[in-house]
């Protein structure tokens, strides 16, 4: 039997993760009071059967004393109980946005301020984050991408990568992505916009891609960019960062930035220590605006 404790900061996706585990035929219990945890664990052999092979238990800051929980988890380990901890996390700005969109109040926002509730909860949950076997940062994950991560770990038993790196192309005329950690301006490269046959295409088309990359400056830039990113990533990991957004920008986010983002992504994914995703934020904007 696989026993998973699903926890994390409010608004990061704990409930969604539990539902996905339930779909994967885990027996799921959410918001179990901490004093009942030992009793629940003692009943797990009775729960186990043909229909129940795995168990997932949801715990958050509302479940009770975290000090008591820490003691119980230590006792469970000493008694030989095997369990894994999945910690759901997200950036503070993303959490605030989610709470505002849903018009819900944060469970620990005693003063009514969401950011104060987040600060208090992070302090309360810090020991669980340190103990976690898996940390999934949902700041930049779509629901289907979260499901893929859950399935990788708890269904397919694949090795999990705690660091998720997003390579994002964008257009400066639409604004710099607010969640970008690193921003690179590639407007110094030859612009396919001024080539009539390439103008209606995008960096997703081979003709545009080859036009941009068939340039000594672009090749030298890619070598330096790849080298710098490969140097930075392990240092970010060492500091505890679980999500990194590398934003590549050109004027409209259609030609040069898309090409460079594609090329950087193709080089980075050779490193299987981390998770990678590629996104083109503005590649279709001009086409939509013309309709």
From TrEMBL:
GTP binds at residues 60-63. Residues 1-157 form the RapZ-like N-terminal domain. It comes from the Bacteria. Keywords: ATP-binding, GTP-binding, Nucleotide-binding. Residues 163-284 form the RapZ C-terminal domain. Pfam families: PapZ_C, RapZ-like_N. ATP binds at residues 8-15. HAMAP family: RapZ_like. This is RNase adapter RapZ. It comes from Blautia ammoniilytica.
């Amino acid at each position: 039997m696989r026993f998973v404790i699903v926890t994390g900061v409010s608004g990061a996706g704990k409930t969604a993760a539990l539902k996905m585990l339930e779909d994967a035929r885990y027996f799921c219990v959410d918001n179990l009071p901490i004093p009942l945890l030992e009793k629940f664990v003692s009943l797990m052999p009775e729960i186990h059967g043909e229909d129940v092979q795995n168990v997932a238990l949801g715990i958050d800051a509302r479940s009770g004393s975290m000090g008591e929980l820490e003691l119980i988890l230590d006792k469970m380990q000493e008694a030989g109980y095997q369990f894994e901890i999945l910690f759901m996390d997200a950036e503070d700005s993303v959490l605030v946005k989610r709470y505002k969109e849903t018009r819900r109040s944060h469970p620990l926002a005693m003063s009514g301020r969401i950011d104060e509730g987040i600060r208090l909860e992070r302090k309360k949950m810090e020991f669980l984050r340190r103990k976690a076997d898996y940390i999934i940062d949902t700041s930049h994950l779509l629901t289907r991408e979260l499901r893929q991560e859950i399935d990788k770990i708890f269904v397919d038993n694949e090795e999990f990568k705690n660091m998720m790196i997003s390579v994002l192309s964008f257009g400066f005329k639409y604004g710099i992505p607010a969640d970008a950690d690193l921003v690179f301006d590639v407007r110094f490269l030859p612009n396919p916009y001024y080539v009539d046959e390439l103008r209606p295409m995008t960096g997703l088309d081979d003709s545009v891609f080859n036009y941009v990359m068939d340039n000594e400056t672009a090749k030298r830039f890619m070598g330096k960019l790849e080298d710098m990113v490969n140097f930075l990533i392990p240092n970010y990991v060492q500091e505890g960062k679980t999500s990194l957004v590398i934003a590549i920008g050109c004027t409209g986010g259609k030609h040069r930035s898309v090409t460079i983002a594609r090329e950087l992504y193709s080089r980075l994914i050779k490193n299987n220590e981390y998770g990678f995703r590629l996104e083109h934020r503005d590649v279709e904007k001009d086409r939509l605006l013309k309709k």
